[in-house]
Amino acid sequence: MAEPVKVRFPPSPTGLLHVGSARTALYNWLVARHTGGSLVLRFEDTDAARSTEEAIDQALRVLDWLGIDWDEGPYRQTDRYPLYTACAERLLADGKAYYCYCTAEELEAERTRRQTAHEPLIYSGRCRHLSAEERAAFEAEGRQPAIRLAIDPAGETVIEDLIRGTVRWDNALVGDHVIVRADGSPTYQFSNPFDDIDMGITHIVRGEDLLSSTPRQLALYEALDAPRAVYAHLPMILGPDKKRLSKRHGAVSVEEFLDRGYLAETMRNYLALLGWSPDDKTTVMSTSELVDRFEVSRVNKSPAVFDPVKLEWLNGEHLRALSPEQYTDEVLGYLQREGSPLAEQPDRVREVAPIVQEKLRELSQFESFAGFLFGPVEMDAEAWAKVSQDPEAPRALAAAADALEALDSWDVESIEAALRSACEAVDLKPRVLFLPVRVAITGHTVAPGLFESLALLGREESLSRIGVVSRSFAAGA
After folding, report:
1. Is 247 one of the catalytic residues?
2. Which one of 242, 247, 301, 386 is the catalytic residue?
3. pLDDT tens, 288-333?
4. Can you spell out the DSSP letters for 311-336?
5. Phi first, then psi: what are they for 33, rounded to 5°?
6. Is the pLDDT assigned to residue 424 strictly greater than 50?
7. Residues of 351-369 as b/e, b for ≥16 C-beta within 10 angstroms?
């Protein structure tokens, strides 16, 4: 029977969890859930100067919002120092690692010399065969040694990457790298593969920026006689300008999309599509469909493009797919999270939300789009300019007011019938008559459905707003 798949997500808590890290977390989660395997969450917090509790808290919030759960952890590498120390001591005892007494100045001088001579920029290994006397002399000087892993320079390191195929490295170009610093702290190239070995990780799914780390990390597998993990290196994510995604492209911290009212299901759907697709036509997918269909082998090796416009469109699709009740709950939950005053009128929100469901692509648009239904109308300058320059507007408003005032029943169907009859009575096309009415009651040219808006505003408020605009025309005349 095949070994159960076990993957990990090991963020470094030195900053906000960004889009690239969120995609990596999602892909690992999808692999685990698709195969019936398990996911380990591990915070690689050995960089004491840059790691923060705030970053860990933010990562946990984002993962919780995205619905990415884990089966083990969260572990923290700072809690595992005794394990790294014991492993390093074993490697030293077995002759697979050695103490390096080189100073920073000596290493920089060596690097400069090798660069000038056009030699590989790797450590020369000069401390690899120090005698006991030489070591004692360095220690008498007060030098604190680092520990380097001894790399066999012969042959190649080769992997069969699930995405990139066969990848090779010349071992002579790898060099003996530091695994424990002089202060006793482990390096990434040591703690990361050690934890993967110790935790039984079978598949390593990570960004291609870490591909170059692979030969050094596999050297530890070899030194510890550990079975190799299977690697899959994900493509880079670019902005719309085809340059590496960064802050200049707008929101890159995942939590910013929560703040703008994106659904977690939208983000899972979109992040999954950044480098992967189940076929050449499917875009909108539920999370259960992603789990059923995700295969690492279908991940593209070419860079993925993060397109905010497509993400906004996709969020609109997911919002429209909700039931009216679910949509209303999402709107109300968003308003409450953001501290909007509209949240103080939950019953009104429940009345209004269904009529804007077809229009919004972000929940953050609700307040500006439907605010006219909660308080006084705020006239948009461009909308007013468009109506005020329309010679038919006064006649349209007058006809609409007459038709609405005559209604016995104030409901959507009656309002629509009355306004359409008004169009025929004054020989105006619906778009010509409806626009000034829409602007009068909403303050905008783009707004929720006209008939539904009038019904929610009520007879008195609707006629009052139409009257205000009509009188402004009369005053201007």
Report:
1. yes
2. 247
3. 999 999 999 999 999 999 999 999 999 999 999 999 999 999 999 9
4. HHHHHHHHHHHS-HHHHHHHHHHHHH
5. -75, -35
6. yes
7. ebbbbbbebbbbbbbbbeb
